[in-house]
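Q: I'm building a small set of examples for a reading group on sequence design. Run inverse folding on the following structure and report the sequence directly after it, with nothing in between.
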């Protein structure tokens, strides 16, 4: 019937499907949960996170629980980083301790033959050369930042394999789990140092002593630079600009 009324057809809006909640961020902490089903729900009650599972079981994670878990991870990461960088320093310190008596032999009471002026000049020059080439350019500018940068990537409670933590000093040196180029460089340097050490042992007095003195200066500089870099990164929170040379996901 035409009586002036218009018929309005109601428009039904599509019903939104419940979204799957995969994570809830509280402050700076991330609480991960499994995707929720039809009978699951999450309620935020202040700082409490209450999760209802199938069957009606309630579990809650308070802010203090999350903070404790985060503290545990942070402490574990710091200890792993300390073990990685500190282990490298221990390796260097062991080498320094082993060759220190040889380097100081020319100045001992039972010295075979005192150093001549030329040999004394060579002694000082060798120390300065190793300080610059090995200590400053080799360690401070390249190797030490690399060690600390890689040490900072070890997360024992956040996905890092156990052998990365156990062998952390060698991991930090780039001997494994690194890019192909980094592994080639690290293994080449390690092998080269071993060959040079074996060759230096065959040198007569006082030339072996002179070279060992330079090596001690370089290794000591390197040890100190690693400690300084680690303190700046781990304790002062400064970023390390050096690439840790981690492998791509496809090449792990």
């Amino acid at each position: 019937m035409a009586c002036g009324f218009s018929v309005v057809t109601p428009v039904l809006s599509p019903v939104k499907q419940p979204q799957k909640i995969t994570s809830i961020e509280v402050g700076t902490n991330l609480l991960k949960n499994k995707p929720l089903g039809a009978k699951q729900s999450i309620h935020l009650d202040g700082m409490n996170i209450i999760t209802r599972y199938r069957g009606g079981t309630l579990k809650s994670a308070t802010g203090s629980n999350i903070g404790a878990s985060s503290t545990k991870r942070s402490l574990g990461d710091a200890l792993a980083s300390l073990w990685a960088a500190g282990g490298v320093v221990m390796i260097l310190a062991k080498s320094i301790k082993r060759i220190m008596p040889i380097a100081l032999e020319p100045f001992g009471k039972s010295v075979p033959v005192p150093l001549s002026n030329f040999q004394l000049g060579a002694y000082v020059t060798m120390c300065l050369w190793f300080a610059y080439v090995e200590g400053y350019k080799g360690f401070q500018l390249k190797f030490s930042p690399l060690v600390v940068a890689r040490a900072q990537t070890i997360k024992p409670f956040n996905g890092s394999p156990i052998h990365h933590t156990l062998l952390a000093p060698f991991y930090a040196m780039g001997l494994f789990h690194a890019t192909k180029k980094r592994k080639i460089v690290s293994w080449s340097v390690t092998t080269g140092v071993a060959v040079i050490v074996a060759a230096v042992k065959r040198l007569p007095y006082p030339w072996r002593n002179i070279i060992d003195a330079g090596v001690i200066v370089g290794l000591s500089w390197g040890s100190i630079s690693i400690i300084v870099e680690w303190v700046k990164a781990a304790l002062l929170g400064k970023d390390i600009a050096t690439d840790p040379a981690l492998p791509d996901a496809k090449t792990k």
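Confidence is low (pLDDT under 50) at residues 1-66.
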